[in-house]
Amino acid sequence: MTDRKPGDSGTDRLFAHEQPHSDFRFDASVARVFPDMIRRSVPGYTTIIPMIEVITEQYVQPGSHCYDLGCSLGASTLAMRHGIHYNDVTLTGIDNSADMLERCEHYVALDDHSLPVTLRCEDIIESRFENASVTTLNFTLQFVAPEQRQGLLTRIAEATRPGGVLILSEKIRFESEQEQDTQTRLHHEFKRANGYSDLEISQKRAAIERVLLPETLQQHRERLLNAGFDQVILWYQCFNFVSLLAIKSTRNSQ
Ligand SMILES: C[S@@+](CC[C@H](N)C(=O)[O-])C[C@H]1O[C@@H](n2cnc3c(N)ncnc32)[C@H](O)[C@@H]1O
Ligand SMILES: O=C(O)C(=O)C[C@]1(C(=O)O)C=C[C@@H](O)C=C1
Prior knowledge:
Blueprint: H1 28-41, H2 45-59, E1 65-69, H3 75-83, E2 90-95, H4 98-110, E3 117-121, E4 132-138, H5 146-159, E5 160-171, H6 177-193, H7 198-208, H8 217-227, E6 231-238, E7 241-247
Parallel strand pairs: 1-2, 1-4, 2-3, 4-5
Antiparallel strand pairs: 5-7, 6-7
Helix pairs in contact: 2-3, 5-8
């Protein structure tokens, strides 16, 4: 198992000083510190990345396509790449942030592996998928408008071969107000333990409030089943961050 996450960039101090409100965007300043930001902000991220390699290895099929949607700097893309041991498989990373993709290209070039990676700068809402065995949405769906999520997942499920999967990692919310408060507090303690100040935590919270829209585990499960996946497994949870494995059954087990 490998752990080849991009990691040589700057420390995230983007919210360290008081500043006027603006909605969070994946621009050049975020791209520069992104590896540090996501590692210190998402509990379990450093576990989920190497597990994407393990899961890809289990489900990739010869002659199929693999997709990493919202690939950012390519951490999940490279994990998938190292789980693919067929040379007739294609791997495509898609992101609509040119600033992220520009850096992603460098990380892909630095990664010592023969499988080509195609990077596309486009909105995944408009992307075409076909003949897929493994697709990853690692903390990306949460940024897609809620009314567009079902359509996107349905297109992914339709493009997925029998026996193929979608790896879906998301920040979630909870029905119970008490659990929501507890999990949010624990998440903020995780950020504090990683060196973020109260000001950084509260300014980041305000910046993502209108752009990162978490849903409940039940909403995700139902939507994945509606989309056409046959089984949904919660394979990872740390506080309010989860990763699901949605599986399309093989025809003969239906
Ligand atoms: C939290 S990051 C994903 C992290 C990455 N998958 C990883 O494992 O390191 C979310 C990414 O999704 C991208 N994104 C958000 N909405 C998108 C859309 N509609 N189409 C394409 N990319 C999108 C953002 O630009 C950003 O790079
Ligand atoms: O929920 C938060 O507080 C976060 O900072 C999470 C999160 C994410 O889940 O993508 C938000 C934006 C950045 O992409 C990095 C981390």
